[in-house]
Design a protein that fits this description.
alpha/beta, 9-stranded mixed sheet, single chain, 5-stranded antiparallel sheet, D-Amino Acid Oxidase, Chain A, domain 2
Length: about 375
């Protein structure tokens, strides 16, 4: 027997939950299916927990648009829903003369993204804010912050459920079929079922390509390759010497081994980046020496033996090592020709910051909006 349903969102990370909430708030009947036994156990809970300002992304890109819109929405959401967060600010530091021009270019790019609050600092001004930081120049981003991601996901879930959404954990999407009368999904778990859906949003993050390939009738040429980018984090023993986040100048699409803080004030460093073939969440202790070298370029006071393994994250990348970064891919019927299906591919950083904005854009596509932006994939 196949049950007829309105909307199914596959994946209960921050993006899937934000999409489900946006759809539920517009009156749609929503079921969220998640293969794990808890919400947000992969990409959503294994990152730097940063609310990004919108500095690094090409003007006009989806990433720039949803990051900046998502940042404002996220701060408002945290304030109205009691989600623990802090607008701690961030320093982006130049440690070599050759990086100063790039620092100014980054500021100009941010301004093109409507991030106009960056402040250019010289060495003395930067050290007045963070005395342990060594640099020759910096940008201060006052609107960068940190968030309790688990509290945020619980608030998204609560909002969605308050408006009728239903969450099914330990319920993997095993496959399905594109049909003339809808999209059939086969859901596993303790009580397997088949659902005939009017609308499906594939927000499965690291599993999004597998879900898409398992939908019979979807053109495989529409499914991009997936690459795993693993990052290690190490925490600093003892009291944090920093009050703000500290980032080196980015290297291509990688933002570098940076200082992040949790809401309890603990300091961690990471992530580095390694291209891997399998999902392995063990911290690699052999990377410690490289971490010390990277960090001491801007924090020369780092003591030997002060770093301890913390955790790792794996990002769903649309490009391989050495290739130019791709934009988020919010794939709709305009790209794959299937009414009612939205695939979210390559939603990595700044996906957390962008989640509410992505939710609204997907809801605009599926529910209709005169203000829905054009050009949703790249």
């Amino acid at each position: 027997m196949v049950d007829r349903v309105d909307c199914v969102v596959i994946g209960a990370g921050v993006v899937g939950l934000a999409v489900a909430r946006a759809l539920a708030l517009r009156g749609r009947e929503v079921i969220i299916v998640e293969r794990a036994e808890v919400i947000g156990s992969e990409v959503s809970s294994r990152n730097s927990c940063v609310i990004h300002a919108g500095i690094y992304y090409a003007p006009g890109s989806i990433k720039a648009r949803v990051c900046v819109a998502g940042k404002h929405a996220l701060y408002d959401f945290c304030a109205t829903h009691g989600v623990d967060h802090a607008r701690v600010g961030k320093l982006i530091v130049a440690t070599e003369e050759t990086q100063l021009a790039a620092l100014d270019k980054l500021r100009a790019q941010a301004a093109a993204n409507a991030v106009d609050d960056l402040i250019r600092l010289d060495r003395a001004e930067a050290r007045a804010l963070e005395p342990e930081v060594e640099c020759i120049g910096a940008l201060l981003s006052p609107s960068t912050g940190i968030i309790d991601v688990h509290e945020y996901m619980l608030a998204l879930q609560g909002d969605a459920e308050a408006h009728g959404a239903v969450l099914a954990l330990a319920s993997p999407c095993l496959g399905g079929e594109i049909r003339d009368d809808g999209i059939r999904l086969d859901i596993g778990g303790a009580e397997p079922m088949s659902l005939l859906c009017d609308t499906v949003v594939n927000a499965a993050a690291l599993g999004a390509m597998d879900v898409a390939r398992a939908l019979r009738g979807l053109d495989e040429r529409c499914i991009p390759p997936l690459y795993y980018a693993k990052g290690n984090y190490f925490y600093l023993t003892g009291r944090s010497p920093f009050n703000r986040l500290v980032y080196p100048m980015p290297s291509g699409a990688w933002l570098g081994v940076h200082v992040s803080l949790d809401l309890g004030g603990r300091c961690r460093f990471g992530p580095d980046i390694h291209w891997v073939e399998t999902l392995d969440y063990d911290v690699d202790p052999s990377q410690l020496e490289a971490f010390y070298g990277s960090i001491r370029r801007y924090y020369p006071g780092l003591r030997d033996g002060a770093l301890m393994p913390d955790y790792t994250g794996i990002r769903p990348k649309l490009t391989a090592s050495g290739e130019p970064a791709r934009d988020f891919l919010i794939q709709t019927s305009a790209e794959h020709g299937v009414d009612g299906l939205v695939n979210l591919f390559g939603i990595e950083s700044p996906g957390l910051t962008s989640s509410l904005a992505i939710g609204e854009e997907v809801a605009d596509v599926l529910c209709g909006s005169a203000s829905a932006p054009a050009g949703r994939s790249a």
